[in-house]
């Protein structure tokens, strides 16, 4: 059967308009599309939440108490009394925007959705969490002349306050000592909330604020039980994730840091002079409540943060911008000049998986650095092969028999799992005391799962053949070596031909500067954005593979490994877009210190248009590897030092974001409430194409189109820029004017870019670049085009 062809742009657009007119936020609608296309509707169960977020947009009153009273009044009308309203409400959002979270039935939620001033009602959702070498790799060094770090420090008295929405912090970590830190700025309005094993003394001149949020989470799952020692009802981090991300961004210098002797060096954050504000919204028991996340955004805006770092999100499908709490909270933060940096997700290498795709946030992809951890494997025939592992334990330098997992299948194993070393597939008698060779498969994608399965049958080692990747999994109990399929096949041949196949492991070692990098990580989610393909996502790539940073000693290094007593460690090597996000957070923090008057959009533009020289030649890990493109890395690999002086910026104002929401088809009245504007929607031209992003993405090029962009000169007052175009294959591109002359009166100039398709068939996405050059600056934006035949979707 031929695959069904659907014009998703039209389908989503039409649905958004219908959805928005109902004024009930569109999570159900988006899920319905997935159900239609995939014939799979189990995801609809997520809307059964008893907690609902009543979002009311921009505050209508300056005094927080009046805003809160208005929330009680609305809820009282539905529930019958103010007492019932107070008992139902979990949070009153009254600082950065207006709204509240409350325990409501579905019928009550529908009634409130029709109340005056309510933008929409959002069912509570549970979101999930998505160094030594990395900062040197990015050339963020203390003594680099004209570099971003010394320049950021030279601006005395203006370090940034970075807020982290994460799992909390381990305040005793050396990364958070306040030696040499400036006094807490007077503009800071935040709190240091106390709780279990966390008191006001845990805050200092580095950790200047700490809050924690449980109401939304506990309303869904019941009271958090902390008696077993796996969590703290306080800002203290029991999971490790928040400590890792915050130390990556702003940790103090620590000499001789390592993970069990690996990746040894001086650990430091990218912006060590920045202040930290902690907002614990995620819990080690699993998940982050959207009601709690929105409360943290509301407080952070009021507290006075300069940058927000959010290494969490939801899996595809993407929610609409008016029912996604990260989009809503970040919209109000950005409107107040707060840059918001988000992880792009770990659902790669598949296309259309990127999340946190709102145009006002900086969405980060993960890339590799030039540090690897090779482990030699010596065969019984004296041949040596090399894989990667993070292992410094015992069971090395001795020969052990090696077997292929498929050759030692348990008699009672599930036939479908027999080929993959999956749980229950291995014969314990035949595996005991041996090294097992396993191959990645559809049912067994994780090396960690394979290692656990081998340990369960008392195997002494694992060799895991998989798609090539530099991301290395941790293993404490047994040596666990990752190789590619070619090496795995070589070992399989050896097992089949040797009379007594044996292997011996060496210890892992650290190798720096001997691997080509950066490469886009295998796991890093890819574009195009499934909700707004005219907005290029991700925005930028940063190191997110095998990053060493501080860790919570209360958290096990390998959460799933309960068979071995794991020693508490203060540092951990971890991977994910969660690790890439704080790298960009630190760079944004330094840029804000150097350019305090730049808007969040200006800072994002500076990052995207000054990509590293490797950005255009990077490889994207995948199956197979391929040349990286903007859907893998956005503008490219971040170049912090170039971003200081981008020459030109593509700036965006808050009213432009509201016009974007209008162009997306959302309800005009709802947007007015959200943005605090009387009538933000104006029907004029193709705004989505002309939205002043530092990229041009045209998902449906029908013959030809002309779009405009405006650039602001932030370099020398008198500057002359010349356009240079690398047109996407199959497309003709012209720029007018091709010269931009700036002076004291002409600081902003507009140009037009015309695209004409040369294809007569339905095309795929292709990529090019537009450069503006003045002899010193090279200001590049990606060009992304998908030619389509005009009547391709016409009914026959």
TrEMBL record:
<dbReference type="Pfam" id="PF00082">
    <property type="entry name" value="Peptidase_S8"/>
</dbReference>
<dbReference type="GO" id="GO:0004252">
    <property type="term" value="F:serine-type endopeptidase activity"/>
</dbReference>
<dbReference type="GO" id="GO:0006508">
    <property type="term" value="P:proteolysis"/>
</dbReference>
<protein>
    <submittedName>
        <fullName>Uncharacterized protein</fullName>
    </submittedName>
</protein>
<feature type="active site" description="Charge relay system">
    <location>
        <position position="166"/>
    </location>
</feature>
<dbReference type="InterPro" id="IPR045051">
    <property type="entry name" value="SBT"/>
</dbReference>
<feature type="active site" description="Charge relay system">
    <location>
        <position position="578"/>
    </location>
</feature>
<dbReference type="InterPro" id="IPR023828">
    <property type="entry name" value="Peptidase_S8_Ser-AS"/>
</dbReference>
<keyword id="KW-0645">Protease</keyword>
<dbReference type="InterPro" id="IPR010259">
    <property type="entry name" value="S8pro/Inhibitor_I9"/>
</dbReference>
<comment type="similarity">
    <text>Belongs to the peptidase S8 family.</text>
</comment>
<dbReference type="Pfam" id="PF05922">
    <property type="entry name" value="Inhibitor_I9"/>
</dbReference>
<feature type="active site" description="Charge relay system">
    <location>
        <position position="241"/>
    </location>
</feature>
<feature type="domain" description="Peptidase S8/S53">
    <location>
        <begin position="161"/>
        <end position="615"/>
    </location>
</feature>
<dbReference type="InterPro" id="IPR041469">
    <property type="entry name" value="Subtilisin-like_FN3"/>
</dbReference>
<dbReference type="InterPro" id="IPR034197">
    <property type="entry name" value="Peptidases_S8_3"/>
</dbReference>
<dbReference type="Pfam" id="PF17766">
    <property type="entry name" value="fn3_6"/>
</dbReference>
<dbReference type="InterPro" id="IPR036852">
    <property type="entry name" value="Peptidase_S8/S53_dom_sf"/>
</dbReference>
<keyword id="KW-0378">Hydrolase</keyword>
<dbReference type="InterPro" id="IPR015500">
    <property type="entry name" value="Peptidase_S8_subtilisin-rel"/>
</dbReference>
<feature type="domain" description="Inhibitor I9">
    <location>
        <begin position="51"/>
        <end position="130"/>
    </location>
</feature>
<dbReference type="InterPro" id="IPR037045">
    <property type="entry name" value="S8pro/Inhibitor_I9_sf"/>
</dbReference>
<keyword id="KW-0732">Signal</keyword>
<feature type="domain" description="Subtilisin-like protease fibronectin type-III">
    <location>
        <begin position="690"/>
        <end position="785"/>
    </location>
</feature>
<keyword id="KW-0720">Serine protease</keyword>
<dbReference type="InterPro" id="IPR000209">
    <property type="entry name" value="Peptidase_S8/S53_dom"/>
</dbReference>
